[in-house]
Amino acid sequence: MTNDASGTTGPFDNLLCFAVYAAGHAFNRVYKPLLDRLGLTYPQYLVILALRHADGQTVGALGEHLFLESNTLTPLIKRLEAAGFVQRRRDAADERVVRVHLTDRGRAAGDDAACLPPELFDSIGLPAGEIAALQQRLVALGDNLRRSAEERG
Asked: I want to staple 102 with a disulfide (CB 3.0 to 4.6 A). Which of 69, 97, 106, 122 is the partner?
């Protein structure tokens, strides 16, 4: 718990959810100038990395990987397509299914974006082993919260 200049604590000091939220915003601020060089937003960067890992994914599969609903993901993909990073194509076996493929520009951006995380280690200010442990704990936290939401929903 931290005190401000008046000796009182902040309204969010004891909220884990706010600490995670604030850290996410801080990540976005650090990533922004790096991604601006590539012409990508942070969510677009994640789509590019997901497709770099497995090109030609369905919109549904991308949504599952990114924890995004199609009404959020579809406009994001359309903007990436308009910028020349991806191309949407109907699946040959089932035309109801849309697959997303990287273009040459998207592959080049993915290659450039893959080198971003090492540039950010200094900003994180933790040893590599602690970063890996923190990431594992955050993944477990997310999994537990999603499972709890499904059980309640």
From this structure: 106
**To the nearest 5 percent, what fractions of the chain are helix, strand and coil?**
65, 10, 25
Instruction: Give domain limits for the chain.
Output: 16-114, 125-153
Q: What would be the CATH architecture of the domain defined by 16-114?
A: Orthogonal Bundle (1.10)
Residue 5: what pLDDT? 59
How far apart are alpha carbons 87 and 56 in whole angstroms?
9
Give the count of beta carbons closer than 10 Å to the beta carbon of residue 49: 17
Residue 97: which residues within 8 A CB-CB, separation 6 or more?
A: 58, 60, 90, 91
pLDDT beneath 50: ranges in the chain: 1-2
Return d(Cα 115, Cα 94) in angstroms, integer.
Answer: 36
57-58/98-102 β-pairing: antiparallel
86-90 and 57-58 beta bridge pairing: unpaired
